[in-house]
Write a structure and sequence with these properties.
378 residues, Aspartate Aminotransferase, domain 1, Aspartate Aminotransferase, domain 2, 2 domains, seven-stranded mixed sheet, four-stranded antiparallel sheet, binds 4'-deoxy-4'-aminopyridoxal-5'-phosphate, binds glutamine, EC 2.6.1.88, PyrdxlP-dep_Trfase, kynurenine-oxoglutarate transaminase activity
Amino acid sequence: IKSKLPNVGTTIFTVMSALATEYKAVNLGQGFPDYPMSEELTAKVAEAMKNGHNQYAPMPGLIGLRESLAEKVEFLYKTKVNPDTEITITPGGTYAIYSSLTTILQPGDEVILFEPAYDSYIPNIEINGAKAVPLPLTYPDYKIDWDLVRASITIKTKAILINSPHNPTGSVLDQNDIAELKNTVAGTDIFIVSDEVYEHLIYDGLPHESMLKHPDLFARSFVNFSFGKTYHCTGWKLGYCIAPAAFTKEFRKVHQFNCFSCFTPAQVALAEYLKNKDAYLSLPRFMQQKRDYFIELMKQTKFDLLNTSGSYFVCASYGRISDESDKDLAIRLSKEAGVATIPLSAFYHNHKDDKVVRFCFSKQNKTLQQAVERLIKI
Ligand code: PMP
Ligand code: GLN
C-alpha cells in the first residue's frame, strides 16, 4: 500500500500511555483527567438512553444542543451565531479541526501554524495534499512572532491555524496578538482555523480571546471546541465547529459523508446541562488550583517549570538533570522514575529539542503528589 502519510508513525500519546501501563507509571503524559466527571451529566445521558434517544441524531447535531451552544456563545462572547446554519456537532475537537482543514484545502495550498504544535495538525494538512508551514514560537514564552508570520505569507497561504490556550505550552493569545492577527490577515483571503478546545482552562484571570469575540476575525474562521475538555470526559469524543453559514455549508458536505452524525444520548444530555453556567464558569478556578498545587510541589525537584496560563499542561526544562534528548529522558522517566510525560520534540516537525518535557496537571492531588515523590528522586 502506498502510504498517504509516509512521515507519520504512532502518535506520541499512544506511545507514552503504553509505556505508562507497561511500567505502572503515574501518567502525566497524555492529557486526560483522572477524577470523575459530573454525576448529574452522566445521569442525564443514562436517562436519555432510557427514554429512547438511541437513534441517529440529525446530521448537524441535535438542534436543542446547537441552540444551547448559541446561547452560551452570546453570553460569553457577545456574538450571535445561528444554531441552524453556523454550528455543527462533531465527534471530537480533533475531527472538527480535520474537517475544517479538509473543507478549505486544495492540493498545493499552504497553512501557517506554530510549533510546538498539537500533533494532529500537520498530518491533517498533508493528507489534503497541502503544505504545512510550521513557524517556531519564541522560547521560553512560546509567543507568536508576527513579523515572521507576515514574512511567511505567500500567494499560496490558505489558512493560519491558531490554538489558544495552547497545547503543549499553556501560552494564550492576548489583545496584542489579536490586533496583530487582524492586521496580518486584513485585505487577504486567508482563513483562520482556530483550536479553542481549552477555552475554559485559562488562569490568572486572563480572558479567552476567542475568534467569536471579534466579528472581523470570525468572518474568516472555523472555530473548534471539545466537550471532552470542558466536562472532564475526553473519552466522549464530542465537539463542535462554529463557522459562518457559507463555510458551515461546505463543512457539512465533508462531515455528512465522513461520519454523518454523533452519539445522540450525550447530545440530549448536554442540550440541557449546558444551561448550567456554573459548570463551565467554575473551571478556571478549579484547574488553576491544580496548576498551582503542581507548581508548588515541583519546587522540590530539579525541573524548572516554564510559565503556563492555560490548558491542562505545564512544560518543564530539565537542563539541571541531564543533557540527554527529551525522548530519552521521557522514556527513562517512565521506566526508572515511574512517571510518564511527553517530550516536547514530539510537537515539532523540525525536531527541535529545547530539553523540555510536558506534564499534565489535570489530575487528582494525590496523583500529582505521587508523581512528584517519584520525580524528586531523579
Ligand atoms: N486540540 C488540542 C490542542 C487538544 O489538546 C485536544 C485534546 N486532545 C484536541 C484538539 C482534541 O479534542 P478531542 O479529544 O475532542 O478530539
Ligand atoms: N490532547 C491530548 C494531549 O495533548 C491527547 C489527545 C490524544 O491522545 N490524541 O495529551
